[in-house]
Amino acid sequence: MRNIGILTSGGDSPGMNAAIRAVVRTGVFLGMDVFGIRRGYQGMIEGDIFKMKTTDVSNIIQRGGTILKTARSKEFMTDEGMAKAYDQLQIHGIEGLILIGGDGTFRGANKFFEKYTIPAVGLPGTIDKDLSGTDFTIGFDTAVNTAVEAIDKIRDTAEAHDRLFVVEVMGRDAGYIALNSGIACGAEDILIPEMVTDINDVLCRIDMDERRKKTVHILVVAEGDDYGGSKKVAETIMARFPKLDVRNCVLGHIQRGGAPSYADRVLASRLGHAAVTALNNGTTQVMAGIINGEVVYTPFSNVIKGTTPVSPDMLEMIRVLSV
Ligand code: F6P
Question: What ipTM was reported for this prediction?
Fold first, then answer.
């Protein structure tokens, strides 16, 4: 294969740049021309495509965001949008694609490849860790570290004021950021979509803590939790315990930014290299992931909305360690 294209799509995640670097350098090493496609599928539709040099990816391994920029393209989900995108690939002579993104990216890819034949390999780039076929996604480790740093700071002020904080973290429909940051910060409670939230249980635990004169409470809530988000949780607690000083804090997009952790840089480099090698060897329409420390390839259709199950021991541990 001579010409390949690379794009980042959906929400950015720390480590995407490290992945782009690995793809470009592996491609050039194998004698390929690598074309950067800006703004994901939208840039593909608009022909925002340029030939990349190895120096284009110098000094980016440590940077958050994505030098290729990203977008969530509604137009790509239409027949016309896909036809325009395919035409642009033809115009630029692109014979293979490297797609870096999350659930939405692979959904789009699946639909596109039902109509058009072009070899492609994906990389899991999302802070949410909501894909199967990999133990970790690029950006997840950094996002959890960012959340941990923020929640530690919140605990300082919570302690100073004897307050209860309900902290909301990202993850879309998945609770991995909440679960891991909550455990790492010693949260008194963690609410995640993978577990049905019984609000009376939550209130009961707060009541018990109050009786024991435990003055600081940190509840970490995943944005996809079924009770309806951190604001509603905070309001319910205030209604039940009017004397408690309760605050609600949504961490938001800070979780998507910042320099990638060493783990995300290594993961991104490994998967970027593996993806181009696979494409070159004819292993296509798969996502490259890491399972038990080894690179594995999973068909696009199998990675969508298939999360790794939450370990029951972690759920059990939350209750035990927060006593
Ligand atoms: O998928 C990554 C993610 O950050 C989710 O955790 C979150 O639900 C969503 O993207 C936010 O999307 P946007 O940046 O479009 O508001």
Answer: 0.98
